[in-house]
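Our consortium's second objective concerns turning raw sequence data into structural hypotheses that experimental partners can test. To show how far this objective has progressed, the report includes one record in full. It was chosen at random from the queue rather than selected for favorable results. The single chain below, 412 residues long, was entered without modification.
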Amino acid sequence: MSATSSYPSDLTMSGQPVTSSLKDVRTVSKRMVGHFLETVVPCRTLPGEALNGDVTAITRVCLELAVSMLDGSDIPGKTQQLAHTAAAWAREGIPIDTIHHAVHEGFKLGFDLVLTNATAEDFDSLKILSRRLMEVLDTITSTVARAYVRELRTVVSEHHTAAHTLTSALLSGHANSTMARECGIEIADEYQVFALALGTHPDEKIPALDREVVKRRKLRRVQAALATRFGQAVLSLLSIDGGTVLLPSSLLTGAALDELVEDLARAAQAPLTAAVVLAPAAEVPEAADRAHQVLDMVSRLQCPPKLYRFDDLALEYQLTRPGPALDYLHTLLDPLEEHPDLLETLQCHIANNLNRQRTARLMHVHTNTIDYRLKRISQLTGLDATQSAGLWYLRSAIVARSYQNQPTGRAG
């Protein structure tokens, strides 16, 4: 709407211009700031220089703007000043709800001042005044919101660029203190290096929906959850399929890491699988590679979505290293090539920690069928899945086979 009031400028209250009680802008604005301290709790947490400086100054600007609009005057200069201050507040991190609450409290106080000498004969004037005040309030709140959001987007973009630059530098081994100062982000001594794989959201399976939009929304929820919990301390390079997250080790350790992955899965509203490796800042590149190798191995072994540590899968990791042992293990399951149902049963059974009932349920067969297939596997391979030695070789063969049959890669 236009910044200039469309109403005439001769509105009176008890024979006086409605703005007469607001003309002493300095006194009224000082009273309003005092009122903010009493009624707007978040204002009490603002630094003294903010209250005595920006808040007082902008309160006066808002009051002058209100008087001008009620008098029908032109006010573009005042709205520009208001927008400039709102942008500064966004950059300083003053919550926008605090700003809007203060604006409304100021309006209530100002309205009370205007009504001080009102009588029953002023009813028609009050109706017009109410509409004018709604116009003033709309102008102020929309100006503040527009400038605040515009500046906030700029700040977020700047931080995103800086965080992306520093994360890339850490992952490539080129980060240093000078770069950190330029980015405005402190480099931690040690990081929990996560490799993440985002699973499929249920909506991705609905043909009528845009799968890419669903994936992007899933990613934004994960990014928002990380930012809400850790602010600028967390660094990440994430895509719609997953990626890498660097979290200072001082923030979370132990079981709290598992809880974090569970929280992120809830935010994503989709399965989330992660691998984590602890490393000093200088060793982040090697830790990231190792975390993604572990994540890749977890995927090949069809392990359930959760957090995996390198220590949990050190043996499997070693089995995937190239060499004659890997080649030999790969051949152990060759007899099952012509029996895909047996190979699938073996993989599922081992992935479910030898739980026959769970394996049968997931494969939609009876437990007797699982027993029969395990016996056939033993007959064809010479390795008994019910004995520790046979199970050891079968599991190792599955690790070796899954590693050789699929390409490697990193999300993000």
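The partners drew two points from this record. DSSP finds 15 helices and seven strands in the chain. The radius of gyration is 33 Å. Both points have been shared with the crystallography group to help prioritize constructs.
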